[in-house]
Amino acid sequence: MSIWSGSSELDRVAQHRHNEEWVAQLWQQENARLLKVTETGEFYTCDGGRRLRLPRPFVTFDPQRHYLLGMVADVPVFTVLSLPEGETHSLRAVGHQLEERERDLATVAVSLVNWHRHAGFCPVCGGTTRVINGGFARVCTRCGEQLFPRTDPAVIVAILDPDDRLLLARQGSWPKGRASILAGFVEAGESLEQAIHREMTEEADVELHDLRYWGSQPWPTPRSLMLGFTARSRDGHVSVDGEELVQGRFWSREDVDRAEAAGELVLPPSSSIASRMIAAWRAGTLL
């Protein structure tokens, strides 16, 4: 099972964050901390990306710019959109080496900052919006429509053939040698299972059975929730579409070990759910 299956140490204080005065008081606490995020989704770090850089806020609280992530123990943590300064990293680059609670903080911070950058205007009437609920919502100043951070569900599937080989494929835009398990977005009015069958048929002409949920991972660049599944191919047949996917085949564990050692295969970064699922398959613990 994936590492995201447990509860988070971050208390989002949803029952209190609507109170702007209460949020402002947290900002003024001596132990308050601020995580700065850039417009490209990188965040302030130290020690080569092994820890978050979390200084104490030193400016006046602005509820339209400073968003409350929540409390870690008794420490209030905020985030803000900022220009790059000093060491910054992305979740893709350093998510695997952050402590779990710091990874959670970075994920929420990047998600919120990215959403606010694109939610300044109401989708109903075009009016300007302002921040409410400590940064977890916006409201239109003209029509009163409330907006909430979006999450786009996507399925990612580790597909095994009858010989327990894993399907890996390469997108045309990827560097030579890079490959991963298959993924795709859930469309409107579609269940997760329907999305899996549609995406895998469209991209690789794979007929599946024995779908099982495996785990999930928030992926805030831009705003996805990756929902991991395992599945079996009925006959081991695969034929990529030649558009989104340009290569795809089933690999044995020995094939993967040999190609990776030779530099011919580049697998997903270890911060991703794809990497965790592939590692579980290699260890014989995926199912």
Automatic annotation (TrEMBL):
Any one GO molecular-function label of the UniProt entry: RNA NAD-cap (NMN-forming) hydrolase activity
Domain Nudix hydrolase residues, every copy: 149-279
Cofactor: Mg(2+); Zn(2+)
The keyword Metal-binding appears for this protein: yes
Enzyme Commission number(s): 3.6.1.22
Family, as annotated: Belongs to the Nudix hydrolase family. NudC subfamily.
Protein name in UniProt: NAD(+) diphosphatase
